Amino acid sequence: xxxxxxxxxxxxxxxxxxxxxxxxxxxxxxxxxxxxxxxxxxxxxxxxxxxxxxxxxxxxxxxxxxxxxxxxxxxxxxxxxxxxxxxxxxxxxxxxxxxxxxxxxxxxxxxxxxxxxxxxxxxxxxxxxxxxxxxxxxxxxxxxxxxxxxxxxxxxxxxxxxxxxxxxxxxxxxxxxxxxxxxxxxxxxxxxxxxxxxxxxxxxxxxxxxxxxxxxxxxxxxxxxxxxxxxxxxxxxxxxxxxxxxxxxxxxxxxxxxxxxxxxxxxxxxxxxxxxxxxxxxxxxxxxxxxxxxxxxxxxxxxxxxxxxxxxxxxxxxxxxxxxxxxxxxxxxxxxxxxxxxxxxxxxxxxxxxxxxxxxxxxxxxxxxxxxxxxxxxxxxxxxxxxxxxxxxxxxxxxxxxxxxxxxxxxxxxxxxxxxxxxxxxxxxxxxxxxxxxxxxxxxxxxxxxxxxxxxxxxxxxxxxxxxxxxxxxxxxxxxxxxxxxxxxxxxxxxxxxxxxxxxxxxxxxxxxxxx
Length: 516
Hints:
Strand 22 and strand 23 form a beta hairpin. It contains 1 helix and 35 strands. The protein has 4 domains: 1-29 and 132-138 and 241-277 and 409-475, no CATH class; 31-126 and 492-515, Jelly Rolls, CATH 2.60.120; 141-227, Elongation Factor Tu (Ef-tu), domain 3 (Beta Barrel), CATH 2.40.30; 281-405, Immunoglobulin-like. By secondary structure, the protein is an all-beta fold. The protein is 3% helix and 35% strand.
């Protein structure tokens, strides 16, 4: 079922393809229901629901498990349902609580999703900071802006508590950080400290020597970086941010974006789009070749050509031998199959094509060689051989040269030939606002954490792939759905309370609040 047809993916990690529902919040199973009789008051409203309570006096269901709330007037007289949200005057400036009042007549009800919601100063979207089609830093790290306080990390103790010169607020448990050539993982902070009894303000607890690095003594005040190498491997396995041969990516932050010490950090749900580079290829500019087309090559004859893959060193004189009876392009013994066999042999053989995947096939009537990678450096170049063996280029139906088309970020949109309207192609990973990553609008391939930016996916069709990212971050709507300002969260960006009252001075009103 296509996700674009209304199905809603849910949960799970990388590689999950389950799709459920109809794209709407699930209201069929109430979590809790509470009915309250309320009387008129000119000054005081009755608290019906608190999504971030200081105590258990009133109904209080954790906001993290509430998908919607319903308020129904079950009485005989009108009643006010009052919803508390917080005002923002810009993307990162939170003001005071404000209230939406709905006057419900008997038997009327109102249902609101318990999602990110604020009272805004104007109608413009508070986007925070917009990142558009930007490649991750090629160093696989971004400076946090903090340094280790002098002498605080000059040992190899594991775990270790050390001080940062600008405070702990940017950091989350599970973060992979880089200090010089060591990868450390945050295990606790002043606000969230599961590993020790106390951690002083501005300090973090880290475990040492992650992802193939070595615990080292770091003298002085070295820089602290957010690290975003592919976390399935050692930190120096690759030289840039890329998926592996299985199409997997994992990192503990979103390429350094969305971290803030005092303002509203995190990623905005629904704003993520990730696009991969295309494969490099070489084409022969033919238009009429089919599997049954005669190649013009001679049976039982060896031919050769040079090939260069992905910016490497040229493999000289790659050779193949035409079948004794099949000189056509197609079939299990045809020209294309023979060339592919030669390429596959060299993939496993020490040399200039070792572990460089190249495929050859017929596409649109043309002969096309494709790189097996989706890196920015992905490329295929075909040239003439030089050993004296029969030359492939320029023989029979084969042109004397091939055209190389390097990897690129393709155009994002297509244009309707009649209306000239543009629509976005289905070439992206996008998030669905619920933490699921959707590939080509079709299936769930991974997850993202809007607060930390931790992200992982598996897309087998995109092995060894580089990518560019688009996202909105650091605004009122960014990060986790929050109903309080506890810990290092400094925003309220969701429904906070529901209150009730009645304009009727001479009768009780009855309101029922149901959470889903």
